[in-house]
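Minutes, project check-in
Item: structure for the 333-residue chain
Input as provided by the requester:
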Amino acid sequence: MARRKQLKRLVAITAVFVLAVLLFGVVFGSLTHERDPKVGASFSTHYTEYLGLDVEGTYEAILADLEGLEALRIPVYWDEIEAVRGEYDFQEVDYLMDRAAQEGIDVTLVVGLKVPRWPECFIPSWAQESDEVAFEESFFLMIETVVERYRDHSALERWQVENEPFFPFGECPAPDPDRFEQTVRFVRLLDPSHDIQSTTSGEQSLWFLRTWNVDVLGFSLYREVWNKSIGSFIFPHSPMIYTLQKILAEPFVDKVIVSELQMEPWIPEDIGDIDNSIDELYKMFPAEDMEASMVFAKQIGVDEIYLWGVEWWYYMKVQGEDRLWLKGINIFE
């Protein structure tokens, strides 16, 4: 009985705290405070290849044309850097990092089991066949190898540990808070000089619960998504909702940012199975939607926004539809 009373008291205190913070935000007019944010983008070698594009050609086009690009978020895929146990291949990541440094672009390197782009987890087949103890040893050895290789790289701005680690999305093991916390501590031990970021779902989580032991919290911002149960739907959230979440999370971290702003359509099918014409694909997420998404994100009042979909823009450009690419150039100017 006493334990139940303590729980009720904790819930009541939390509710009062939340309401007080919300009232504070409203009173001081910070809910729609628009800033001039640092604008970056995510770049996935896996997704680029999935679209049938050349990684180097696509990356060089991004660096050449999107001249105002200030930052990149780059996932490190375990199955690509260690396809064979104990044999590491960093040629591609080295290239991405070195070119970013040459262009003066800050990089957030994403490490972990769960990193951006479907299917979210990129575990080598040999690791999947390992027992639990061997798996853990191999995983943390991979983390150590990556961090030690890039912790002194001039392009590195921060680490991201996992991608939405508490959100059950993708073909991944069940969320494991203990492994996440252990990985964060391990990365910080290996590299105490760089901040650590984690991310959360912008629409389907309470952000302040995901701020534990990290310096930067990134949130995804998707306005139109697809679900196999109900199909395509639009989140009804206003910028104010995201701002309220940001205000609640800010006391626990140094910074809250948009780590993933939707700038491409959510296509449920495999790209190879799509029969739509390029015109139909464009209509699923036209340049006007890019502009609207950017305006929406800026109204939240964040200092950094990372766009999601530059590979898609280039894919459409290669197919003869360059309006997304041109709009991207305009956004980064």
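Outcome recorded: The chain has two domains: 1-28, 37-332.
No further action items on this chain.
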